[in-house]
Amino acid sequence: MKNLLKCFTIALVISAVLPLSQVVEAEETSKSPDQNMVEATINYGKEGNPSGKVAKESPFISYFVKLSSYNVNYNISMFLNGKEVDADYSEDTGLLTYQASELSGTNTVKVIVKANGLKQLEQSWDFTVDDNKKKPLEGKDTDLLEEVESEALNRINEYRENLALPTLTSNATLQETAQAHSNYMLKYENTGHKENSENEDLFTGVSPQQRTSYFGYENWYVGEGITYEEPGGKTAVDHLFDAPYHRLSLMNPFFEEAGTGYNEDGDFVVNFGGKMKEDDRVVLYPYHQQQNSKVSWFAYESPNPLRNYDKNKIWTGYPISYAYYGPMNDKLVVENATLTNSSGEEISTYSITPEEEDHGKHHVFLIPKKVLIPGEQYTVNVNAYIEPQSGENKDVSRTWTFTTATTVDIQRVYLENHNETNFLTVEWASGTDPNAEITLKKDGNRYLRKEGREQTTYRQLTPGTYTMNIQSPHFEETKMYTVTIEENSDLRYDYDSSLQVTELEEGEVTKNGDGSPAPEYANYSQWDSPDTSFNSNKDWTVQFNTAMESSNLTDSFVYVIDDDGNKVSVSLDYDSTNEEISIMAPKTGYDSGEYQLVIEPLKSNQGVEMTKGITMPFTIK
């Protein structure tokens, strides 16, 4: 079954802060020293770009170093292999850049920063021109890769447009980077974001930042997201956006472009790139006044946002995120963060704030402990402020509302093949109901049944038109869809099915013969008999562990329904103790087809009621 592990990182240059040395000019000794001290700091990167290996003999070299004040006499120099080069420096971006040419082997870059005649900083790093340059797109189905990237970028930009963020454009270098890493993951499994230099045949860099620089990407502000066994770009992006850590990159306003990679296992990689800006912005999701927000999320992400609560792989309410994007040395201080419903009642959440975070300090996650209520308006309040590196604190508090989906909403259905069995995957735009029951039928025969993450397959799927019923106790409704399945000869990845869903159309819910809605059994327990196929005169005997009320042992509480939801004319017989009941076949026997024995919640003689009903499907030959 699908591996839902989602990895994440943002490979940013982590700036350190260094105060400039305080000096007094010799000719100004008559003045007070305090009037002549240089009050400034340096933000700088641990290393520059590129680092590790590079594919190009003429790489673009850059290094981030920014002074908090330029009202000083300063000089920033770059040396390549011991010789000073004519590098350009931008006070706006803090980037020192140089276009090198005709390099080979290992090269050393050194940057020296001087202020008021004194050396304030010296940083060095190496990079090596690869003599076995990687060509990640060679031999690949480039039409498929372009299709997947187009799906992904279109979906990313849908989210970003709803958030009033700049859209991303495709970047060929980032696509090469992402494809190279997906190639690496295909051969060397369970690698996540890291590569091992010992695997020289496909190695392009330990980190996402090294890999982007390997292919010559000029910007140092980059990120990466990974998700596994995906049918395409759109679904991959939805899964990434649902996961709160991954969402941070997708809605980062400073990213300007992206490229994707995709391999035969369905592993999807997206690399982002852009320029860090001095302005700041708060981005919220779900966004203010959003309608039809999802109600749920299956918490399975790396890093695990619930690690401090010792929770993982559980159903929760849909994650709410507050993210501050601004100068890296700004400190986000969160005084409190709450979620309330329309009645003003506070909702219990797993709260993740900067104080306890070790994967970024500029965000807040509120993950409701229970699945959210459909059609409910929620209010989020985050009281927070920024402590900048210099200057006054800035209030960045936000209060906003969103409303959850009111009805079951299915956005896509697809099939995956595992061990020669087709597994039905249903993507819910409304957020999954963990307790929903989904059945797929054709010509009166049940082919499969899903409850939660478990699937029971009764018959192998074949091309045709099916009826898919979704019974959702959480949304308190039943939805019926017509699903068209056809043969699929254009397989995208190893788990792709030879069958594909080509049409999905919502239809009318099945009714009983008298026109009343068919009963809903999604929250009932199901008995699965070792034998599911019987002759037409099959009788059933049910034993209870205590005596039941006589008024409950009637065909209003114990009955059999056919595949259309209509009751069958069975007869009931119970013993004098009320601890056993027999369900006798119709006098003329059952017709061939599928049936369900249904036991509604019964009450015992002591007044104790069953917590849920029971169903048992069976087939008459």
| Total of helices | 5
Q: Enumerate the spans where pLDDT stays under 50 for 5 or more consecutive residues.
A: 1-17, 20-38
Structural class: mainly beta
Can you tell me the CATH superfamily of the largest domain?
CAP
Shape type: elongated
Helical amount: under 10%
List the strand order in the largest sheet: 31-30-29-32-33-34
Q: How many distinct domains? A: 5
Radius of gyration: 31 Å
Q: Which topology of the largest domain does CATH recognise?
A: Pathogenesis-related Protein p14a
Strand tally, please? 42
Taking the sheet with the most strands, its summary is: 6 strands, antiparallel
Name of the CATH first level of the largest domain: Alpha Beta
Distance between the termini: 32 Å
Beta-strand percent range: 35-45%
CATH architecture of the largest domain: 3-Layer(aba) Sandwich
Report the average pLDDT across residues.
89
Molecular structure report:
Strand 6 and strand 7 form a beta hairpin. 10% of the residues lie in helices and 40% in strands. The protein has five domains: 31-129, Immunoglobulin-like (Sandwich); 135-274, CAP (Pathogenesis-related Protein p14a), CATH 3.40.33; 281-404, Immunoglobulin-like; 410-506; 525-620, Sandwich (Immunoglobulin-like). With 621 residues, it is mainly β. Residues 153-268 form the SCP domain.
